[in-house]
Design goal:
This is Probable membrane transporter protein. It is a multi-pass membrane protein. It is found in: Cell membrane; Membrane. The chain crosses the membrane at residues 12-39, 83-104, 110-131, 172-200, 206-229, 241-261, 273-290. By secondary structure, the protein is mostly helical. It is built from eleven helices and four strands; from the N terminus they run ββαααααββαααααα. Strands 1-2 form a two-stranded antiparallel ribbon. Strand 1 and strand 2 form a beta hairpin. The radius of gyration is 19 Å and the shape is globular. The protein starts with a strand and ends in a 7-residue tail after the last helix.
Length: 308
Amino acid sequence: MQIYLPIAEMSVNVFVILGLGGAVGFMSGLFGVGGGFLMTPLLIFLGVPPTVAVGTEANQIVASSVSGVLAHWRRGNVDVRMGLILTLGGFVGSTLGVYLFRWLRGLGQIDLVISLCYIVFLGIVGALMLVESIQALLASRRNGGAVAVRKKHQHGWMHGLPLKMRFRRSQLYISAIIPATIGLFVGILAALMGVGGGFIMVPAMIYLLGMPTSVVVGTSLFQIIFVTANATFLQSTMNHTVDVVLALLLLLGGVVGAQVGARFGVKLKGEQLRSLLALMVLGVCLKLLFDMVTVPNELFAVGTGGKH
């Protein structure tokens, strides 16, 4: 069944969009990521203009993240204090990102920037996560199934920063400047790439902040809700790139998928979750790189597709 998307100015199959929304929602609950890093490229592959895909996907992420947070909240896997600090930085970053998005769109370069951002960030993050998770899995097998415990309270440069706060659920006592800075950076990416930023946030929370994997997933989704909501509002009012019809279809599938994903996530180990997420990230990166290399005409077309 076909339905017309007014902002994207195209017709799509309803069941294909619902299926994509459900798949992304499943990943949201399973990995603690908004899923935009996969959905935005998929929408572009379907022919949706990159600017509309970015603006609309941020809206869908809000609903799937809310659904995922509720599931993790019931299990006590959300560090609210950490989430609020991340959200504060994310609000500032997403606001700056929307203004940057508008400027690049005016130059006619936003489509190219979107593709390059995906290739660079997904490639780096996916490769690092895959290497680390494989090493962790091998170490676990050598230790007879026991996972090596990450050392806590190591004194480095972060411990010399001011504004220290105690995050009891994450068992951390660190400066609030670090999570706020991470939130700022992820907020900018949320606006430019139409993502929740989980593919950056989750590794940063695990490896930089030293948070337990079980708490990372729920806390990541918590901050994603507010940051992407802010990005969606600004994209809609300033850039007019949010297609409501497309967003509603994605929402319907995403809410259901997130609940299912959260249940499956409980059954997997932290190392297994990180391995699967890394493979997903790298897969999308390679697909985008392949399209950019094999279809060079699009490199010239994106420069004229920034305005409607």
